[in-house]
Amino acid sequence: MAYADPHATPPQPLTVDGLARRKRDGVRLSVLTAYDASIARAAERAGIDILLVGDSLGMVVQGQHTTLPVTVDHIVYHGAAVARGARHTLRIADMPFGSAPDPATAYRNAARLVAEGGADMVKLEGAGHMLDVIRYLVERDIPVCAHLGLTPQSVLKLGGYRVQGREDAAAERVRTEARAVAEAGASLLVLECVPVALAQAITARLLIPTIGIGAGPHCDGQVLVSTDLLGLGDGRRPRFVRDFLAGRGSIEDAFRAYAAAVRDGSFPTAEESYA
Ligand code: KIV
Question: Which amino acids are annotated catalytic?
């Protein structure tokens, strides 16, 4: 076990109100999923900007086939562990499937993620009825990260995990939803598995930062699932995943290399993106 240097200068914390400034300054944001204190601590030391307690934990921690079985209690449990490991890093917690059927229920669940799970912001998939939820949470001081494109909680409706927004009508829908979530008050937008040109157009249009995963190099930041980044996938590696541990000596080095590659724009490449 390694202990933090007690004399080290604490990093300048990124806060929710600093996100749009990062975009204006053209400083890309590195985001990584974390589910436990040790990984969170390594990520904080490596200079990762934001940690996401994603409902991907259902698949990568629990071994489920989808994210649907994840509950608010699970996110609270893992969020609290991440918060203990990375006190200075901005933390986002996923609102799991079924936790935001209406604004008041969403608020009760989101407040738990903040109060018990140590989250600075909650992430919600989709637009539609979520627009009212976003407005309701933001008006009540809970910052929101929206998530569009491939939204894994909609897997039953989508019929699988596929690139979204390839046809003109589908691209227009994602563009419209992106404007709507920003107008509703979201501070950040995750774009998952959409073509490069669509993500680029949305990023140019919005004042809030976009965070891509399988959305090309023109987003204002990138997010990866930490186990993917460490080469711990289930054997099927999506094209947007790079193994940053390969050729490096430690998990912390891998996280540092990822943060640097996001910041200097060398990740993702065109080959790691969808046309
Ligand atoms: O749950 C998760 O890890 C996510 C990211 C893949 C964006 O939503």
Answer: 192
